[in-house]
């Protein structure tokens, strides 16, 4: 980590160079076995067997084999599932089939989430009804389960999940957004609904105290949650502390609200200590005043969000490409890009004859789509034939 202001910006970043560098194919099973025209794998009784500790449940293995499940994969990743005395292989397969899953889909689900066979049919049916509160079409629901089986088969928080789903619906979140939360951020449903309500109330209160309007508050909250539902995993106390830190750092209420919107809620994953370290680092590197630093942060919230080691690494990568601190200070948003992305984009631009050392770093910025648009404009300009309107016309007789 860089310390003090005695080092120049380049010396500060390049201190990193002195750091030491720390540097079986699956089984092919036979197709699902059937008897006559019926699917005999749909049996309705749990398997129990007297097994010694550490010994696989043979009936579980046989049932999985009939479903063409890659048992070797389960042994490699979650062998403990195969040691359980009670498993509901056929029952879970039956429920999935009723929902529209075909045999390959069932096998894939059980391979990726073998602990599903330890859930009772009652638990799975309750989970099925729960998810249908926001995803009523079973063909869509089974696709979600195929993609996110672990989220679906976490059945130990049923009452909390239901209460939180109803709360989000009352809050105004659309069902497709809640469905996305269930699959990508399932942890926010596991705690008591009161905890999520408290966090939302804290956000609403602070939004209004920072100058936000009642008319826009609901839209702001819903957008913030849609962008980053993990806000709800933090305590209301932590949220309050981070906002108060920004206010103590001389950001106006309007500027704090601006940062909250730009950071999409990621500010709540930080702490006052980490934000202070990042700001001190940036002030040292760019040799700027407190007011200038504040403007840089408003322009590029990454200076607040990224930790010192990440900022060090990215600055070092830019300096190695011949980019100056003055250029970075003029366009700090370039620090939002990883070193690999910067190197790739510089290489593409250099192939067109664009000199990044003397050029504008704006052409490096933005999303992949933004960069491709800028790159296309530079390429078109380079390839466009020069036309001199006053040049004589060459007429051949």
Automatic annotation (TrEMBL):
Assembly notes: Monomer.
Superkingdom in the source lineage: Eukaryota
Gene source species: Alectura lathami (Australian brush turkey)
CC per GO annotation: mitochondrial matrix
Molecular-function GO terms, alphabetical: nucleic acid binding
Family to which the UniProt record says this protein belongs: Belongs to the mTERF family.
Subcellular location: Mitochondrion
InterPro entries with a match to the protein in the record: MTERF, MTERF_sf
Lineage: Eukaryota, Metazoa, Chordata, Craniata, Vertebrata
GO BP annotation list: termination of mitochondrial transcription
Keywords: Mitochondrion, Transcription, Transcription regulation, Transit peptide
The encoding gene: Mterf2
Protein name, as recorded: MTEF2 factor
């Amino acid at each position: 980590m860089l310390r003090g202001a005695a080092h120049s910006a380049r010396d500060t970043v390049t201190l990193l160079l002195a750091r030491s560098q720390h540097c079986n194919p699956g089984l092919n099973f036979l197709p699902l076995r059937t008897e006559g025209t019926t699917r005999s794998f749909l049996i309705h009784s749990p398997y129990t067997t007297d097994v010694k500790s550490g010994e696989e449940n043979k009936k579980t293995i046989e049932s999985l084999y009939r479903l063409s499940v890659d048992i070797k994969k389960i042994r490699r990743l979650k062998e403990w599932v195969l040691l359980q005395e009670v498993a509901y292989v056929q029952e879970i397969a039956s429920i999935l089939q009723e929902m529209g899953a075909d045999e390959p889909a069932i096998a894939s689900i059980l391979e990726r989430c073998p602990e599903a066979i330890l859930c009772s049919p009652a638990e799975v049916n309750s989970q099925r009804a729960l998810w249908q509160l926001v995803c009523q079409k079973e063909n869509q629901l089974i696709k979600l389960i195929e993609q996110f089986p672990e989220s679906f088969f976490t059945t130990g928080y049923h009452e909390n999940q239901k209460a939180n789903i109803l709360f989000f619906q009352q809050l105004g979140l659309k069902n497709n957004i809640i469905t996305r939360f269930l699959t990508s951020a399932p942890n926010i449903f596991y705690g008591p609904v009161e905890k999520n309500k408290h966090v939302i109330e804290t956000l609403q209160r602070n939004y209004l105290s920072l100058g936000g309007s009642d008319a826009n508050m609901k839209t702001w909250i819903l957008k913030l949650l849609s962008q980053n539902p993990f806000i709800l995993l933090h305590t209301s106390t932590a949220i309050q502390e981070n906002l108060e830190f920004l206010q103590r750092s001389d950001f106006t209420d309007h500027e704090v609200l601006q940062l909250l919107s730009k950071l999409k809620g990621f500010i709540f994953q930080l702490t006052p200590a980490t934000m202070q370290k990042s700001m001190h680092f940036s002030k040292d590197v760019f040799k700027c005043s407190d007011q200038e630093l504040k403007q840089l942060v408003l322009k590029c919230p990454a200076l607040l969000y990224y930790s010192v080691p990440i900022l060090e690494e990215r600055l070092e990568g830019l300096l190695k490409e011949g980019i100056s601190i003055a250029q970075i200070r003029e366009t700090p948003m370039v620090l939002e890009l990883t070193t690999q992305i910067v190197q790739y984009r510089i290489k593409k631009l250099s192939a067109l004859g664009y000199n990044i050392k003397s050029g504008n770093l704006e052409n490096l910025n933005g999303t992949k789509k933004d960069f491709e648009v800028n790159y296309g404009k530079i390429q078109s300009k380079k390839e466009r034939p020069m036309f001199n309107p006053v040049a004589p016309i060459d007429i051949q007789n």
